[in-house]
Amino acid sequence: MEIGSFHNVSVYYKNLKALDNLSFSFEKAEIFGLLGPNGSGKTTTMKVLNGLLKPNSGHASIEQLEVWKNKNKIKKDIGYCPQFNSFNEKLTVRENIKYFADLYKIKGNLDNLAYNTCSYLGLSNKIDTLAENLSGGLKRRLNIALGILHEPKILFLDEPSVGLDPISRNELWKLIKKLRSEGTTIILATNIMEEAEYLCDRVVLLKNGRNIISGNLSEIRKKIPHTETIIIYTKFSAKTNNKKIIHRIKKLNGVIDFEFSNDVIKIKTREKKTGMVKKSALAILKKSSVGVEDVRVVSSTLIDAFEILVGSE
Questions:
Q1: Measured between alpha carbons, how far is 5 from 176 in angstroms, rounded to an integer?
Q2: For the chain, what is the largest distance between any 2 Cα atoms, rounded to a whole number of angstroms?
Q3: Domains, the chain, ordered by start
Q4: Is 130 in a helix, a strand, or coil?
Q5: SS3 92
Q6: Alpha-carbon distance 180 to 174, whole Å?
Q7: Using only C-alpha atoms, what is the Rg of the chain?
Q8: Taking residues 151-172, what's their average pLDDT?
Q9: For all residues of the chain together, what is the average pLDDT?
Q10: Among candidate residues 140, 175, 143, the one with its CA nearest the CA of residue 161
């Protein structure tokens, strides 16, 4: 069931068009990803959905209410965790939770609220620790704790795992999935394809504030360009003009990307061009008397395909 949407939203910052006629929708109890490189419009999209920024045209809706006109009414239904930590480093975990609970005008025993929240997020043994002394992963947990104190229907996470080590990141991902499984709708902004693949039910890929492609990952796989990588294990001689050979292969029609390291050539191509590029590259190497020990063709990843979409006009 649809719980929120964007309708032809455009946002300008002076001469910069941050969002360009952007439209999409998200459903109840799903993890919806805003995927794209830095500067693609992810954070601006979140600010519009949170009622922090009025669009120049179009509108955003949550539960059929236009966000900007009803921003005070929808506050109770949304939680926002920005890229930066929103808590006070000089307060303990408990003190931060009680302070934010007061801002949300939450009534009742706030010590119990702090304990229950910490227990839920795995912060119980850090409840009286100063926030500045928490690890990076636990700081992100505290940031999320402050965003869910009022039990919002929709939680916005802006690049939550940036800078985390792999173990902390994976623990955070498990927490995000747990929140979704209990009925929270999560809007996740990320530029990490692996994060989107692991967490998101559906995504919209943004570039220059526009919707490049959207849907669930299986649908997107059918829409995006299929790519392959040709791996050629060579044996260059000391007399070989490597730069000239590499330049010729790079210029072949159909080559998307090229790497050369330790006598191994990797050529990324669109699937339909692979055979032709492989044949031409091997011919160049043979003519230049470069030994070829092995050739392999492997399917590229979804990450590769997204990079092509982001890089294309």
A1: 21
A2: 81
A3: 2-222 (3.40.50.300), 227-311 (3.30.70.1340)
A4: strand
A5: strand
A6: 10
A7: 24
A8: 91
A9: 90
A10: 140
